[in-house]
């Protein structure tokens, strides 16, 4: 069952555009055709709008490249020249860096492409 967009939206949208009191709200909704020309109005369900928006977001995410930077604070007072060992160790442990080092030391590849791992393993 599709859920139609409420008709009250038209009232909010038309009032916000005419008075310019709510320009942000007006920008969220497309313009509606005049009430007299109902035949040109196209029904859009919330599900269809959600699917379109999700597709646009996924397309945007798929065009990006993942870069991850882990920042470590050397001390809690943010002063130069001070290095608190326990604080840094805790940050590295919570960020998974120490575990990644253990995995790398054990001989498991951590930064290899699947096909490189396949070639190295001889399969």
TrEMBL record:
Residues 1-123 form the Myosin motor domain. It holds the Pfam family Myosin_head. InterPro entries: Kinesin_motor_dom_sf, Myosin_head_motor_dom-like, P-loop_NTPase. Residues 54-76 are annotated as: Actin-binding. One of its GO terms (molecular function) is cytoskeletal motor activity. SUPFAM superfamilies: P-loop containing nucleoside triphosphate hydrolases. One of its GO terms (cellular component) is myosin complex. Keywords: Actin-binding, ATP-binding, Motor protein, Myosin, Nucleotide-binding. The keyword Membrane does not apply. Belongs to the TRAFAC class myosin-kinesin ATPase superfamily. Myosin family. This is Myosin motor domain-containing protein.
């Amino acid at each position: 069952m599709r859920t139609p967009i409420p008709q009250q939206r038209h009232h909010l949208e038309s009032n916000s555009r005419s008075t310019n009191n709510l320009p942000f709200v007006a920008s969220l909704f497309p313009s509606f055709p005049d009430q007299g020309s109902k035949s040109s109005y196209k029904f859009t369900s919330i599900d269809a709008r959600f699917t379109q928006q999700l597709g646009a977001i996924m397309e945007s995410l798929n065009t990006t490249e993942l870069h991850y930077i882990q920042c470590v604070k050397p001390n809690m007072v943010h002063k130069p020249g001070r290095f608190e060992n326990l604080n840094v160790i805790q940050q590295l442990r919570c960020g998974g860096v120490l575990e990644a080092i253990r995995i790398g030391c054990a001989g498991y590849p951590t930064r290899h492409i699947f096909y490189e791992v396949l070639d190295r393993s001889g399969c």
